[in-house]
Design brief:
Elements: H1 2-21, E1 27-34, H2 38-50, E2 54-59, E3 75-77, H3 83-95, E4 96-101, E5 118-121, H4 144-155, E6 159-161, H5 165-175, E7 182-183, H6 196-209, E8 217-221, E9 231-232, H7 239-246, E10 250-254, E11 261-262, E12 271-273, H8 280-286, E13 289-292, H9 297-301, E14 308-311, H10 315-321, H11 328-331, E15 336-337, H12 340-349, H13 354-364, H14 372-382
Parallel strand pairs: 1-2, 1-4, 2-3, 4-5, 5-6, 6-7, 8-10, 8-13, 9-11, 10-12, 13-14, 14-15
Length: about 375
């Protein structure tokens, strides 16, 4: 209850600040409020190509992107603890005509955009396995004030960029958005996976940075973040068993969520922790086989048409606590494994159905065909 009171007070102050700035003229500028930045980088390039709109980045603390293609004076540290900078960010939100966002941003509950403003939700996942938004099981016991706030934030998404009809349906369920708000131009950051030269260069850089991969095939384990698991003693894989069975041919890379710390882990000749210092897109280009669970990574990895194994050791518990949008066991484009032994067997047998992955890609990347950023910007600025 104390937290809810604090959030309400915070938003009341922000609303007053926003409304003061709202009295100022609306400008033909582009504001990007970001927690992640991946989609923003691609949209930035296209906004520069297609428009003369000045771009400002409101960079939340969790965003690790540097945005080298933007003047540093136009990058705002959008952190409530940095009061002057945060207020500057609110000024831009109140006076910018084009707004791009990539997450649930609570500050939007305080922003009453003018009719001419276009706010586009790029989101931070190309597809979805677990419930979120209105369907999120973890918010059911939150007080009514929180649910009213969620509704206010979701209502600010004038448009949502999607790569598939499936994701349009999910956004509809998660945010209460009808089909008229869906922009079926594809997801900007997927453009990377259609650029063969960029993909090859990224894979080569990974191998150059990690000489232990030389003459080895790459297994990439990239699990999703689980609630409250910030410090792990293990990753549920029996790495020693994998090493005995697979080390002659494979090297294992671990890519954990940036918020997760793996205690007492040491790299060796078979396994390397690449959780920091390496971007997931680049790691995907170097991977021969992806091992994941309920992450959204497979939706992009499928574009590369390479094998996947789904390590769902806690499927029943996860479905009960978080919820899944579909029948996981029959829907994912690869074998489901519940233990390390099953993973090893699948790798050794190498009996993957690539046709299944192609079909999955065609379904989930229906509108993401290498020109998503261009098409999105054209739609937003010329409609």
């Amino acid at each position: 209850m104390i937290k809810e009171t604090a959030v309400s007070l915070f938003l009341t102050v922000l609303r007053a600040v926003f409304n003061i700035f709202r009295l100022m003229p609306l400008k033909e500028k582009t504001i990007m409020l970001t927690s992640f930045g991946d989609n923003m980088e691609y949209v930035i390039d296209e906004v520069k190509k297609q428009t003369s709109s000045e771009i400002f980045i409101l960079k939340e603390p969790r965003c690790k992107k540097t945005f080298k293609n933007i003047n540093s004076n136009n990058i705002v540290d959008f952190n409530p603890r940095k009061v002057f900078s945060f207020i500057r960010g609110m000024y831009h939100l109140a006076t910018g005509k084009y707004i791009f966002i990539d997450n649930y941003h609570v500050v939007l509950a305080a922003c009453d955009f003018r009719a001419a403003v276009k706010c586009t939700q790029l989101w931070h996942a190309n597809g979805a396995v677990k419930y979120f938004g209105y369907r999120d099981k973890t918010i059911k016991k939150r007080p009514g004030s929180a649910h009213k706030r969620f509704k206010k934030v979701y209502s600010k998404f004038h448009y949502l960029a999607v790569g598939s009809d499936e994701m349009a349906y999910i956004f509809g369920e998660a945010f209460g958005a009808d089909d008229s708000r869906m922009i079926k131009t594809g997801v900007p950051r997927t453009d990377f996976f259609y650029n063969k030269q960029a993909v090859d260069d990224a894979a080569e850089k990974i191998r150059a940075a990690l000489p232990e991969l030389r003459e080895k095939k790459v297994l990439l384990y990239a699990p999703t973040f689980r609630d409250d698991q910030f410090d792990l003693a293990d990753v549920h894989l029996n790495i020693n068993l994998m090493k005995k069975s697979l080390s002659s041919e494979y090297h294992l890379l671990l890519k954990l969520h940036p918020a997760v710390k793996l205690s007492g882990f040491n790299n060796d000749e078979f396994v390397t922790d690449v959780s920091t210092g390496f971007e997931i897109n680049s790691l995907l280009t170097a991977a021969d086989i992806l091992i994941t669970d309920y992450s959204s990574i497979p939706f992009e990895f499928s574009i590369l048409n390479k094998p996947m194994i789904f390590f769902a050791y806690d499927l029943e518990e996860y479905e009960k606590e978080r919820g899944i949008w579909f029948n996981y066991e029959s829907y994912m484009p690869g074998p489901i494994a519940y233990n390390t032994e099953a993973i090893i067997k699948q790798i050794q047998e190498n009996n993957f159905d690539i046709g299944e992955i192609t079909a999955f890609n065609n379904q989930w990347n229906k509108y993401s065909r290498g020109y998503s950023s261009r098409n999105l910007v054209k739609h937003i600025y010329r409609t």
